[in-house]
Design brief:
The complex is a heterodimer of chains A (421) and B (444). By secondary structure, chain A is α+β, with helices and mostly antiparallel strands. In chain A, helix 1 packs across helix 2. In chain A, 43% of the residues are buried. Chain A folds into two domains: 181 residues, no CATH class; 224 residues, no CATH class. In chain A, strand 2 and strand 3 form a beta hairpin. In chain A, strands 1, 4, 5, 6, 7, 8, 9, 10, 11, 12 and 13 form an eleven-stranded mixed beta sheet that branches. Chain A is 49% helix and 17% strand. With 444 residues, chain B is α+β, with helices and mostly antiparallel strands. Chain B has two domains: 192 residues, no CATH class; 217 residues, no CATH class. Chain B is 49% helix and 17% strand. Chain B has twelve helices and eleven strands. In chain B, helix 2 runs parallel beside helix 10 and helix 8 packs parallel to helix 11. The radius of gyration of chain B is 36 Å and the shape is rod-shaped. The two termini of chain B are 26 Å apart. Classes of the chains: A alpha+beta (421), B alpha+beta (444). At the A-B interface, helix 2, helix 8, strand 13, helix 9 and helix 11 of A face helix 2, strand 10, helix 8, helix 10 and strand 11 of B. Strand 13 of chain A pairs parallel with strand 11 of chain B.
Chain lengths: 421, 444
């Protein structure tokens, strides 16, 4: 009888045993596949956590190389072109820069806005206000409308208090004038957002810069273009963007991104310096790395254990067929043919079990998650995982059959058959 | 022959099978135990992350007559789940005199105005650790000589380089700080350190003279308390208190406001947990992944164990038939099988404690070494980039211990035994249903 026929017949005849082996292979393969998917998901999730730490770098004018005149640095300012070039670097999630002006604001009837304490407003020209330090740190919170983005030319975000005091709402137009006595132009801006002040302005901790002399309610964020326009005719040369902030998608890649940025040849890096800021990431990176190495270890453990289990199970199943091997050898079937038959039987099971495990593992994590009330989105079994498991699994199965057969194969058929079962 | 004896004899006679079973059970138990210890370790790691995100709340007691007294600080710190890390701050103004009571000169160049009565005065900043003050952390101040003012300092000040030069002061010299409103009220202080600013002050022309960087003096809380409240205690105007778990902030802040002895109505409490809020969702996702991993492993472990035991019993159909034919009752045959498995399981579970402890140890030591190598890994940035922050300071994070806890061990014992019994009984059921005759006539 052909060994292929023998293998098929055995599998069919002993269908209960086959079914058990099949179930075992199926569950173990499902375990390994889910494990691999979980390991990948963990990596993605860790990356996401790193992304939330707001790791950034600041590019600013290097005042030590620029020279000075009458108390002001003559170092050149940053250009929009330069900022855009840096922002286009891979791995940067967002950016902002500030151009500060101290204009007075007027409503559509040209009446000056009623403001707290100060004479003028403190106005940040901004590319993407969502990346402004005051919003990122949670000191301000946008409660209405949208943030300023770099495609806007005349948007403005004002405080809730300023809006209430002056009866302003989203869609209204305000006009900013920086130095009326120097004939700087009046710039119209549309209110696109309103923010709430979360921080405690009464706390003197922030009193180290000029912004601290202005009431939070007098802070206004406007489009960079509007800020530049307000300066026109007065001092484009003596005022410009001196700092820009770039936020990276993955805090762990901050150094690499900075290196890439430093490689942009069209920027004269002698005039600018870069400062990395990843304090939050540094604080949590230890514990985060621990978590991910714990999960990785867990998956490695699962994989190793699964391999051991498969070997144990196959060797047990073959040990139970000692008698049969004796008979097969006695009827003159060659040893390799017997081993090959057993290997074939195993593969017949595996060929069904592996694809089914692929399907099962795709469901396993999601179903368990739903059952236990946890949402897991990133656990996805890919075809690469499957290929890996199928190839490695097949090799393992073949090896396991071979190893389990060796002790029996070394014996003569007579010895085997005279052994008590 | 008693069934005990039979069970023992079988286990010894079929060494190979017993060893396979033992190995299988050992592997399973070890895996479960290690999984559980990893799970509790990730919980610790997660708590560490939450703590390292530094959620805190600030008490602003500026409007209170006597600020936040020391005993209020200690009763706040006694509240559960505060991390113990805190900063106390006070701000004031003072006239500066030399040791003989002669006024010292301040810088007025670049000041918007020199307010009356402040001709020799400057801003006083008191912090429980001057190095953590925002002037140093965000404003670009650096210490150039001497040492910082810390919680243990008494009557010490840090002065600006230019102020020191101008007035011929050096580290170790004595000067006097005087209350701006009542001139008589002075306190002698020692210059403990000299600082300078690395960034230009951007409020030149806006700031009054006392706010100019050159005229700022850092001091300890008790000195500031003397200037502000005129007593010898160390009350402060502001307190920042860090918590272990930012999720507890609301509860803690409510508890703080219930503490007796303070007029909380006049205080402002503000919560700062933005870093945590940003990371919260992703962290939760990470936690879920760990949870799912453990759940998948447990469920599949049970399935595999049950299947394996069934497979093993199926090989003994013939034997069962013989026993039954010999007149041994079905119950005692079943009991014998159970005994064999339980015997092996008991040994495997005992061994697994040692094995999984060893594995856990190994995992734990790898973790610690990873942390240390990472902390000391220098940020190597070529060119003119500077590294901000530097290695994380001591945040008081708990050490992550990967170890098999007694509770986990007991759980695995209980589940293991129940599972072994259940699956053996289940597997034996179809065989037991048959008559000995039909069993023995079955082809093996």
């Amino acid at each position: 009888m052909n060994l292929v026929i023998r293998a098929v017949l055995y599998t069919g005849r002993k269908w209960k045993k086959t079914l058990l082996l099949f179930c075992l292979l199926l569950t173990i393969t499902t375990l390994v596949l889910s494990g691999l998917a979980i390991a990948d998901a963990q990596e993605k999730q860790t990356e996401e956590v790193r992304g939330t730490t707001g790791a950034s770098f600041t590019v600013e004018r290097d005042l030590s190389t620029g020279g000075w005149t009458s108390g002001y640095s003559t170092q050149r300012f940053m250009t929009e072109d330069m900022i855009q070039k840096i922002a286009a670097t891979d791995g940067i999630a967002g950016y902002d820069a500030t151009l500060i002006t101290l204009p007075r604001f007027f409503n559509s009837k040209r009446e000056p806005l009623v403001i707290e304490t100060n004479f003028s407003c403190y106005c940040y020209g901004s590319y993407n206000s969502q990346y402004h330090e005051l919003f990122l740190s949670g000191r301000f919170e946008l409660v209405e409308g949208t943030h300023i983005t770099d495609d806007l030319t005349n948007g403005a975000i004002i405080s809730r208090q300023l809006a209430d005091q002056n009866g302003l709402k989203i869609g209204d137009t305000v006009t900013g004038i920086y130095y009326p006595e120097n004939n700087t132009p009046a710039v119209d801006m549309e209110i696109i957002g309103i923010f709430d002040i979360v921080a405690d302005k009464g706390d003197q901790i922030n009193m180290y810069d000029d912004a601290s002399y202005y009431d939070y309610s007098n802070y206004i964020f406007c489009s960079m273009k509007a800020s530049e326009d307000m300066l026109k005719g007065w001092g484009e040369d003596s005022d410009g963007i001196s700092e820009a902030y770039f936020y990276v998608t993955d805090a762990a890649q901050l150094d690499n991104v900075i290196r890439k940025v430093q490689g942009i040849s069209s920027i004269e890096w002698d005039n600018f310096k870069i400062t990395a800021n990843n304090e939050v990431y540094q604080n949590i990176s230890g514990a985060l790395t621990d978590t991910s190495s714990l999960i990785t270890t867990l998956i490695a453990l699962i994989t190793a254990v699964s391999m051991v289990l498969i070997i144990l199970i196959l060797s047990m199943s073959i040990r139970g067929r000692k008698h049969e091997i004796g008979i097969l050898l006695a009827v003159g079937i060659a040893k390799p043919a017997v081993i090959f038959q057993y290997a074939l039987e195993t593969f017949l099971i595996a060929i069904v079990a592996f694809p089914l495990a692929y399907l099962a593992s795709q469901q396993a994590a999601g179903t368990l998650g739903t059952l236990l009330g946890k949402t897991v989105e990133n656990v996805i079994v890919t075809s690469q995982h499957f290929t890996l498991v199928a190839v490695a699994g097949s090799i393992l199965l073949a090896a396991a059959v071979l190893v389990s057969c060796i002790p029996i194969m070394r014996l003569k058929p007579k010895t085997i058959l005279s052994q008590m079962e | 022959m008693s069934l005990w004896k039979r069970a023992c004899l079988y286990s010894i006679r079929k060494k190979g099978k017993t060893i396979t079973l033992l190995a299988f059970l050992l592997v399973m138990a070890t895996m479960m135990l290690t999984c559980l210890s990893i799970q509790s370790a990730t919980e610790t790691a997660n708590a560490n992350i939450k703590k390292a995100l530094l959620g805190y709340f600030t008490i602003n007691a500026k409007h209170l007559e006597s600020g936040i007294p020391e005993d209020a600080v200690s009763s706040i710190l006694a509240i559960n789940s505060l991390s113990g890390r805190y900063t106390l701050r006070s701000y004031s103004h003072a006239n500066y005199y030399d040791a003989d009571g002669k006024p010292l000169e301040i810088n007025t160049e670049g000041a918007a105005q020199v307010p009356e009565g402040y001709e020799n005065a400057g801003k006083i900043v008191a912090n429980s650790n001057s190095q953590e003050d925002s002037y140093f952390t965000d404003g670009g101040f650096v210490l150039t000589g001497g040492s910082a003012v810390t919680a243990g300092s008494r009557n010490e000040v840090l002065i600006h380089e230019k102020f020191a030069q101008h007035n011929g002061l050096a580290v170790g010299d004595t000067m006097l700080l005087g209350n701006v409103s009542e001139n008589a009220h002075t306190i002698p202080v020692t210059v403990a350190g000299i600082f300078t600013n690395t960034k230009e002050q951007d409020s030149i022309g806006i700031a009054p003279s006392y706010d100019l960087y050159d005229n700022i003096v850092f001091t300890d809380l008790s000195t500031a308390s003397f200037l502000l409240y005129g007593d010898g205690t160390a009350s402060s105007q502001y307190g920042d208190f860090y918590v272990n778990d930012p999720d507890d902030l609301d509860r803690i802040m409510t508890e703080v406001q219930r503490l007796p002895g303070m007029d909380w109505e006049s205080c402002t409490l503000t919560r700062y947990d933005n870093d945590y809020q940003n990371a919260k969702e992703s962290l939760e996702g990470l936690r879920n992944i760990v949870f799912i991993a453990i759940a998948v492993v447990s469920v599949i472990c049970f399935l595999v164990l049950a299947l394996f035991l069934t497979l093993r019993l199926r090989g003994r159909v013939h034997e069962t038939g013989v026993y039954l034919a010999m007149g041994i009752s079905k119950g005692s045959v079943l009991l014998q099988y159970l005994l064999e498995v339980i015997l092996a399981a008991a040994i495997a579970l005992l061994l697994s404690y040692g094995v999984s402890s060893a594995i856990s140890n190994q995992i734990g030591s790898r973790l610690l070494s990873q942390v240390t190598t990472e902390t000391y890994e220098a940020v190597d940035l070529t060119g003119n980039a500077e590294s901000g922050g530097g290695p994380a300071g001591d945040l008081g994070l708990s050490e992550i211990i990967v170890a098999v806890s007694a509770k986990d061990y007991l759980t695995v014992w209980a589940f293991g035994m129940v599972l072994c019994t259940a699956s053996t009984a289940l597997a034996a059921y179809p065989v037991m249903k048959m008559k000995p005759k039909s069993i023995l006539t079955q082809m093996s």
